[in-house]
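Repro:
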Amino acid sequence: MSGTKEEQIISILKEKSKIKQKVFSNTYEVFASLKGILKEMEVSYNSQLQGHFSDKSLQYNEVSTFQHELKVAGDMLVFQMHSNIFEFDRDHGVWQISYIQNDKMATYCGIINIYNFLNDSFKYNRVNDLGYLVGRIFINKDFHYFVEGKRQMGFLYNDFGNDVINKESLKTIIETAVSYSLEFDLLVPPYENVKIITVDQIQEKRKNSQQITGKRLGFGFRSDDVGVENVIYTGA
């Protein structure tokens, strides 16, 4: 790159800023579409489940511009768009595909995270309860995308070189995350972890139900990590 340092800096800032603004705009557009899908799912699923449950099985809630929630029975799925744009480290698998090798700017991505919590954690304000990252969607300047996630989440959506995200693929991702979360059950904590409790802890439990709860608290989580390390990035 020729020119003075000042010119080089200005050139880099212009190029990167333009790309990052485009990526942010794309990710924000997808997140807005996600909001519409969640609202449609709330109506559709509840109409099909009417009469089977006393309360609505699905409840959508818009927390903020960058966070939406979907209560599904006893689970809460939190969809969160990060406001920043990221690039992959040099050891990441995306660098191996020709799509990226031919266009380095295609590595800049926005991220939408999908977390799974227990609904009671929010209902009873159990602020120390744990949630788990079910998956995260990466979206770039061309609306190309892939998903890293647990089990099937990490295997169905990884053709970054070719896949362009749309409403249909986004709905499939959401439904896969819901399905995984419903199958990912709350396990009894090991006896050794709960056999002793202090007076202070029991008094706190009286007020706020403060015992930390998570679906796999105290248990190894390795068996559910399949899909994250084994994602294969394809595409021309």
